């Protein structure tokens, strides 16, 4: 992961374009979005302000974020505790730059979303890596304690988890919360997939666990809530002292983000439950479609509890290739792009798992399944 200069997502999407491949690699939907949210943004572009909004975000969006989490997750955040950023990526950058000082240790769980490690390193932090292992990727007390020391300043945690599709349960979250409290560490909780959960699961924010709200930075993104990944509107929610530090970093990273998009996201966050339930049902159908097609083609599909992704165990599918070789061949020779999960480990990688994005139209999924069948 550390030797590659370009992220695996850009690398694979570039190869997919070059080889006219079906792209089940990078996580973005190839179907529509809520028209009313886009219309709101268009109207705001024509009639709203096109000048700098306030540095911490449009008041309407900060209020909408606080209200949204009160309604969906029973969190009691105040608008003042919300900082609007240019996507979750900037939220991560601002938070890590704000809280991690040179020499501070930061615990990361592998496989990890690709931005975490470079951001910790750029802040001068020392990454400590714990390792989740396939096929169940379970967060146990042993895994959690792998990286904690007396110098641990923060933990970057992602739930629901990209790339594994895990939604960590209450027992796993309680173990992590207990460790953060015992080691007096801040939790940077990347919850961008919070609404994309299946089979009746409900998202449990880490900050809802006893003793955690005062030490958690919760990160969200409109990209995943509205299938508008290019919009790059995200936010942090954190108690006042942490929010102050985050805003301090944010003001010199991007200062602010497009006001029209912020206004449309504020509108969208107030949508009724039917929208969120409909979205989950649509993605669950796509997940089931891809999983059934892959099983029929002889692939061993691991359970996907949330996110746009499912993982396939190549070894258990009877494929002797490592994940990188399989993915490089699949995109060049069979015309289908996937993500090799070893690219999301910095050490001791699992080399037998690939990640596929199912947030696609039925035709795209069908074409992807046929090409993966050929890639075996
Ligand atoms: N964190 C995780 C776990 C993600 O999966 C993503 C994007 N897929 C991001 C952060 C980045 O989100 P954004 O596009 O809002 O920057
Ligand atoms: N988060 C997306 C994914 O996991 C990709 C985002 C990106 O390309 N930086 O596929």
Automatic annotation (TrEMBL):
Gene3D superfamilies: Aspartate Aminotransferase, domain 1 (3.90.1150.10), Type I PLP-dependent aspartate aminotransferase-like (Major domain) (3.40.640.10). PANTHER family: FI04487P. GO terms for cellular component: cytoplasm. This is Aminotransferase. The keyword Transferase applies. Residues 20-372 form the Aminotransferase class I/classII large domain. One of its GO terms (molecular function) is kynurenine-oxoglutarate transaminase activity. Belongs to the class-I pyridoxal-phosphate-dependent aminotransferase family. SUPFAM superfamilies: PLP-dependent transferases. Keywords: Aminotransferase, Pyridoxal phosphate, Transferase.
């Amino acid at each position: 992961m550390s030797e590659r200069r370009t992220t695996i997502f850009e690398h694979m999407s570039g190869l997919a374009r070059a080889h006219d491949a079906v792209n089940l690699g990078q996580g973005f939907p190839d179907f529509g979005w809520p028209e009313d949210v886009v219309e709101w943004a268009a109207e705001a572009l024509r009639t709203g302000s096109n000048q700098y909004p306030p540095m911490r975000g449009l008041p309407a969006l900060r209020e909408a974020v606080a209200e949204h989490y009160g309604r969906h997750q029973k969190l009691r955040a105040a608008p003042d505790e919300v900082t609007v950023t240019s996507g979750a990526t900037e939220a991560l950058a601002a938070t890590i730059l704000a809280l991690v000082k040179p020499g501070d240790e930061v615990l990361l769980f592998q496989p990890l979303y690709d931005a975490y490690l470079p951001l910790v390193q750029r802040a001068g932090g020392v990454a400590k890596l714990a390792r989740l292992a396939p096929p169940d990727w379970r967060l146990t007390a042993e895994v959690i304690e792998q990286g904690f020391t007396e110098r641990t300043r923060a933990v970057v945690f992602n739930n629901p988890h990209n790339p594994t599709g895990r939604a960590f349960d209450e027992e796993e979250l309680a173990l992590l919360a207990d460790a953060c409290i015992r080691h007096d560490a801040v939790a940077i909780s990347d919850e961008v997939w919070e609404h994309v959960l299946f089979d009746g699961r409900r998202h449990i924010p880490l900050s809802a666990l006893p003793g955690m709200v005062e030490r958690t930075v919760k990160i969200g993104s409109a990209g995943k809530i509205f299938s508008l990944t290019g919009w790059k509107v995200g936010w942090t929610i954190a108690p006042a002292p942490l929010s102050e530090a985050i805003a301090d970093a944010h003001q010199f990273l991007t200062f602010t983000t497009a006001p029209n998009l912020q206004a449309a996201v504020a509108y969208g966050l107030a949508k009724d439950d039917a929208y969120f339930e409909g979205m989950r049902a649509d993605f669950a159908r796509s997940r089931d479609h891809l999983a059934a097609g892959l099983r029929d083609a002889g692939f061993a599909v691991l359970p996907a509890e949330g996110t746009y992704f499912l993982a396939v165990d190549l070894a258990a599918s009877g494929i002797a290739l490592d994940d990188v070789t399989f993915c490089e061949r699949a995109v060049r020779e069979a015309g289908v792009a996937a993500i090799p999960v070893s690219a999301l480990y910095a050490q001791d990688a699992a080399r037998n798992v690939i990640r596929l994005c199912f947030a696609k139209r039925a035709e795209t999924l069908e074409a992807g399944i046929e090409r993966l069948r050929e890639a075996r």
